[in-house]
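Q: Joint fold for the lines below.
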Amino acid sequence: MGLLTGVLRPRLEATAHCDLPCGVYDPAQARIEAESVKAIQEKYQANEDPAFRARAIQIKEERADLVKHHLWVLWTDYFKPPHFEKYPQLHELFNKATKAAGGGEGGAKSSMDPQSGQQVLDYIAEISDIFWETKKG
Amino acid sequence: MGLLTGVLRPRLEATAHCDLPCGVYDPAQARIEAESVKAIQEKYQANEDPAFRARAIQIKEERADLVKHHLWVLWTDYFKPPHFEKYPQLHELFNKATKAAGGGEGGAKSSMDPQSGQQVLDYIAEISDIFWETKKG
Amino acid sequence: MGLLTGVLRPRLEATAHCDLPCGVYDPAQARIEAESVKAIQEKYQANEDPAFRARAIQIKEERADLVKHHLWVLWTDYFKPPHFEKYPQLHELFNKATKAAGGGEGGAKSSMDPQSGQQVLDYIAEISDIFWETKKG
Amino acid sequence: MGLLTGVLRPRLEATAHCDLPCGVYDPAQARIEAESVKAIQEKYQANEDPAFRARAIQIKEERADLVKHHLWVLWTDYFKPPHFEKYPQLHELFNKATKAAGGGEGGAKSSMDPQSGQQVLDYIAEISDIFWETKKG
Amino acid sequence: MGLLTGVLRPRLEATAHCDLPCGVYDPAQARIEAESVKAIQEKYQANEDPAFRARAIQIKEERADLVKHHLWVLWTDYFKPPHFEKYPQLHELFNKATKAAGGGEGGAKSSMDPQSGQQVLDYIAEISDIFWETKKG
Amino acid sequence: MGLLTGVLRPRLEATAHCDLPCGVYDPAQARIEAESVKAIQEKYQANEDPAFRARAIQIKEERADLVKHHLWVLWTDYFKPPHFEKYPQLHELFNKATKAAGGGEGGAKSSMDPQSGQQVLDYIAEISDIFWETKKG
Ligand code: NI
Ligand code: NI
Ligand code: NI
Ligand code: NI
Ligand code: NI
Ligand code: NI
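A: Joint structure:
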C-alpha cells in the first residue's frame, strides 16, 4: 500500500452510480465538477485573453453538464420513495440544483460569475447532507 | 447549509481535472469508478441470470474505461517533472494501474474476479497517497 | 418542397432541447427512444440467437439511457416553478418515468419484457399530455 | 393515460433508429435538431454578448452534428436499394442535406445566418416526404 | 527526431477530418477500425468463453460504428460534386460500405464471421483508391 | 478491388487499438488528429472572423483530446514491460507528448501557434519510430 499512513488519504467511503445498478453512489462526483465550474469562472475573470476565455466558456459548459448528469443520477437512481417521503423538499431541491447548473437566467452555464458556481455548490452540499443522512439511517 | 453537522459529510477538499486547466484534481474520481468495477464483479458472481451478466460485462467495461481515463488525466495533467523526479516509481505505477484496469490478461476488463477490481483499487490508493503528499508539500 | 402534400407529413410543431437554451423542446425525443426500447425487447423475445441477444441487451441499454436523458432535460430545462405548482404530480411523474427506464427492479434496462418498455411509453404519454397543455396555455 | 384527449397530442407514429436494428426510424429526430440550429442562429443575431455568442456557436456545432448523424442513419440504415431506385435523387439529396448542416461554405455550422438553418430544414422536409411515402407504400 | 530512418515509418501523408473543416482527411481512419472489427471476429471464433464473447460483441459494435462514422464524414465532407460526377458509383459505394459495417443482414455488426469484416475492408479499399486518385488529380 | 494499382494506396499495415484487445494499434491515429490540430492553428492565424475563430478553438480542443487519448492507449495498452526496459525514455516521451497536446503552458490546446501543433507531431514521430521498431523486432 505504500508510503503514507491513512491520515492524509480521503476517508470517504466508496460511493457512486451506474445503472446496473452497482449500488455505489457519491455526491462527490457532482461536487468535484461544480468546483471545476467555479474555478473556471474565477480563472475567466482573471484572464482577458479572448482565446483563453473561449476555451473557458466551452469547458465550463461540459463541466456543468456533468454536474447536471451526476445530480440527475442521484435523484432518479439513488433516492427512493421513502426518501422522498422523509425529505419532501428533495424533488424541488434537485430541480433547483440542476437548473442552477444550467443555461437559464443566472445559471452557471450562462453566467461567468463565480457566485453562480458557488450557488450550485451550496445546493450540492444540501443534497450531500441528506444523502449521507440516509446512508447513516 | 442545513441539517447535518460536518461530521458525516466527506472531508475531501475539492479536487479534480479538466484541461483548461481548472486546477482541480482528485484521485477520488478514479477510485469511485474502480469501486463500481469491483461491485459489478461481485454482483456478477452472485447472479447467474444471463441477461444480468451481459449487462454487468458491458457496464463494467465502461466503468473501467473511466478509471483509465481519470488516471491518465492525473498522470499527464496533474503530475509535473518535479513530481516524477521525487517519485521515480510514478510512471510505472500509473502504467501498471491503467493496465490493471484494462483488457489484458488479468485486467479488470477481461476478468470477472473481484480481486482484479481490488488490484486496481490498491494501485489507486498508492497513487492517492502520493497525490495528497504532493498537495501537502 | 416536393412530392407530397402535407397530409402524410408529421404535424408536430418543432420542439426540442439544448441548454443555450434554444427554446425548442419535444417529448417526442424521449418517446422515439422508448419505442426503440420496446421494439428491441420484442425482437429479443422472438430471437434466441445468443449473439443477437447480447447486441439487443447492449443497444437497449443505450436507448434507455437516452430516454432518461431526454426526460431529465424536460424536467429541469423546460418545466418551470409555475408548471410544478399547476401540476403537483409532475416531480413524482418524472421520477417514476426515469426510474421505469432504468436498471432498478422491473425497469426497462433490467427487464427484457416489452411491458416494461410499454410502462415507460405510458409515463411519457402522461408527460407529453402535460407538456402540450402548457404549450397551449 | 390521463388528463388530455388525444387531440393535442402528436400523432406521429413511433419511428426512429438504432442499428440492432430496432426498425424504428423517424426524420423528426433530424428535424428537431435542425430547428434548434436555426433557433440558435436567431438568438445569436439578437444578442451581442460575447459569452452568449461563444456558447451559441459551440452548441450549434453540436446540434448540427446531430442533424448530420440522424440523416446519415436514415440514408444508410433505413433506405434500401429499391428506395434508391424509386427515388434516384435520394443519394444527392442526402449528400446536399448533410453538407448543408456542415462546416463548408454556407453550411449551418460555419454560418450564423438563420437562412442556413432553414436550408437544412427544407432538405429534411424533402427527405421526410419521401420517407413517409415509403412508409405508406 | 530520433532513432530510426524514414524507411520503417509509415509513408502516408497526413490526411483526415473534422468539420472546421481542417482539410485533413484519410480513409485510414475507417480502415483501422475495420481491421479491428475483423480481428475481433477472428478472436471471437477462437475463444468460447462467454464473458470474452460478450465483450467482443460489444466492442465490435463500437468499432463498426466508428467505421460508419469515418465513412460518412468522407462522403459528406471530403467528396464534392465534381467527384460524384467523375465517379458516378461513389454514392452507391459509400451506401453499400456503410451498410456492410452495420446491423442489417450480413452486416459486420450483426455477423461474427470475419468475412463480413473483410467485406467492409474491401469496400474501404475501393473508396481509398478513389480518394487517393482525387488527391493526385 | 478496382481502379487503381497498389502504387498510390497507403502501404501501412493495419494497426490500431481497442481494449478487447483486438491487437491492432497504429500511431497514425494520433498523428492524423495532431495534423488536424496544426492545420486548425494555421487556419486560425489566417482568418480573423470571430465566429470562425471560436469554432476553431472549440474543434482544436476536441482534436487535441483525441491525440491525448490515442497516445494514452498506446502507452498503456500496446507497450509492455520489455518495451519500457528497452526504451527507458518511453515513459517520459509519452508524458511529454500528451502534455504537449494539452492545456498547460505552451500546450497545443492553450496555444494557437502552429509550432505547438508541430511539437506534438514531432513527439508522435519519435513514438512512431519506436513503435515500428518494436513491430519489426
Ligand atoms: Ni453504478
Ligand atoms: Ni479541470
Ligand atoms: Ni435547445
Ligand atoms: Ni433502432
Ligand atoms: Ni478536420
Ligand atoms: Ni483494439
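Q: Anything notable?
A: Residues 38 and 117 of chain D are 4 Å apart (CA to CA). The pocket of nickel (II) ion (ligand 6) is lined by residues E 36; F 16-18, 20-22, 24 (CB under 6 Å).
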